[in-house]
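Reviewers of the previous submission asked for a worked example of the structure-prediction workflow described in the proposal, so we include one complete record here. The input consisted solely of the amino acid sequence. No template or homolog information was supplied to the procedure at any stage.
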Amino acid sequence: MYARIPVFEGVLVDQRNAIIALSGAYGGALSALLSALLAGGFRAYLGGQGVLAGVFGMGLASAAGIVLHRYENSFSSLGNAALSSLFASLAILPGFLLVENLETGWNLLKAMSLPYGVAIFLGIFLVGLLLHREEKRYQMEQSHIESEEKYRVLFESFPLGITISDRDGKTIEHNEFADKILAFQRYEKADWETVNSDCTRISPKEYAGIRALREKQKIDTEMGVKYKNGDITWLHTIATPIPLKRYGVAVIYDDITDRKQSEIQLNKALEEKNVLIKEIHHRVKNNLNVVVSLLNLSENKIDSLETAREAFRQSRERIYSIALVHENLYQSEQLSEVEMEGYIQNMVWHLQANPSAGQTDIAYSLDLDKLKLDITKAVPCGIILNELIMNAQKHAFPQEVNGTIAVGLKEKANQMIELYVHDDGIALPQDYSAAEADTLGLTLIRILSKQIDGEFTIDTSRTSRGKKFTILFSPD
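From that input alone, the workflow returned the following structure tokens.
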């Protein structure tokens, strides 16, 4: 700690001031003051004429250390260490001025500046560099410990499977999530295989981790684990090479089975929608062709302005019955099936508001099962129903006659569908034959009944009043 050197009676020259300065430089103000206090107390205990000078020098060393502490890079390089040591040495040397009297102190300062200044400079310079190196080593150790702890926490708690392998592809570390996700590897290889997104088999050499090692770059891909029962577990994998000697690659696994199944279902639904939309366009084209055919048939029956007006009105109602089908379709979740109960209700309400012969005192009775028909069946049924109701309005109930039109759509026990229109109006003539009638309405009904493979009949058993038109057909 100290050595008695014959400099001046009672004066001790040693490296205590260097230690105090370094204590302040690395420990801060409190450390510098405590070091100065302890060393000063010990110096006072030793006694002699140089006590005041020694205590003053320690105070200067403490102040120098506090100043150096404010600059973090004081000993970060040889140049900085030399400047810091020179500053501290120059700050400590004035302590000699308090030895005995000012003249004696000045002479002693001049005599000791070189030997003592060099000694203090070298002590602060060399020990300061050594302490800086140790401080950096300690900081690196702490940083390493913190990094390891952060790595451990992330590795164990991250909600993804993580595996670390060596350069031979052998797994050397894995977390709990990886153990769960990769549980299939514990089964016999014959029980599962890895597949691409299109379900084609993946060779082991094409695994993400193997590819990352081979190509020395990050690999981001998806793979499926297909089991013998056909189930597939889908994984999103990201493999990244680790540039360290004992490590090979880190692979992150994420179970995306739910998302993948949703994507598959979405793509399937989209494909079905596209097919349905194309089919709808095709059917709209067919229905427009039906409209053209209806207009052509009406044209052949026109022989006067009055018949032209009636033909125009009937054609309008027939087209409306087709339009109702498409309105029902776009309001429904199904693009190919028509909910017939609402469809028929809307049609009847429309025809009731726009009667064929201006008759407004006709009552309507509906008996409808909740049935859905394919558009290929719904359109012909709609046109047939439109013709039968308009026919009843016009012929069964002239303006002076009131009555009821009953409309029904029923599912029969033999899985057949019965569509009927029953009125209690004027009866048909005794010699009436539906097969021989050549009216446009009945011609349409016969044609459309055949189109849906249906059987068209007219019940005139109650010859005094009313009649029932029935079409029996299969919904398939």
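The domain at 161-255 is CATH 3.30.450.20 (Beta-Lactamase). We consider this example representative of the routine output the project will generate in years two and three.
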